[in-house]
Design goal:
137 residues; mainly alpha; 5 helices; 72% helix
């Protein structure tokens, strides 16, 4: 009689963040809804589109930074991963603040706000490229 040994098959660990992919999907949906509303119903939400995508990206960056984990690791050791999470957390807060300041009824038009929005856009594009094409299983 042969003894069968159980072999556990490990799933390959995904490196691409599914949370980040969900945030990108939400931004795509906002863009799609903006086009549909403008095309079919003549409703323009372009004044609020910057607010919407900045808030979505800000919340996305906050989710990716894992603030609770960052707080716990900062008590013991602060390594390279903690630093990148801290940078992502700060970027998330900057995106949320820029989103609130870009609302039409707040009406702040300042070069620093526009520069912050541009930096967040560039960093978001870099995140998209890294998350989708550079990180492989």
């Amino acid at each position: 009689m042969a003894i069968k040994k159980e072999v556990k098959i490990r799933k390959p660990k995904r490196r691409v963040s599914t949370k980040f992919a969900g945030i990108l999907a939400l931004i795509s949906i906002v863009g799609f809804v903006q086009i549909i509303l403008a095309s079919f119903f003549d409703i323009l939400i372009s004044d609020y589109s910057a607010f919407l995508w900045l808030m979505i990206m800000g919340v996305g960056f906050l989710v990716i930074s894992k603030p609770k984990t960052l707080y716990e690791t900062s008590k013991h050791e602060f390594d390279e991963g903690s630093f990148s999470r801290l940078t992502t957390l700060v970027l998330g807060f900057m995106a949320i603040i820029a989103g609130i300041l870009s609302l039409p009824f707040v009406n702040i038009e300042h070069p620093i706000l526009f520069a912050t929005m541009g930096i967040i856009s560039i960093i978001s594009i870099i995140f998209i490229i890294v998350q989708t094409w550079l990180i492989r299983n």
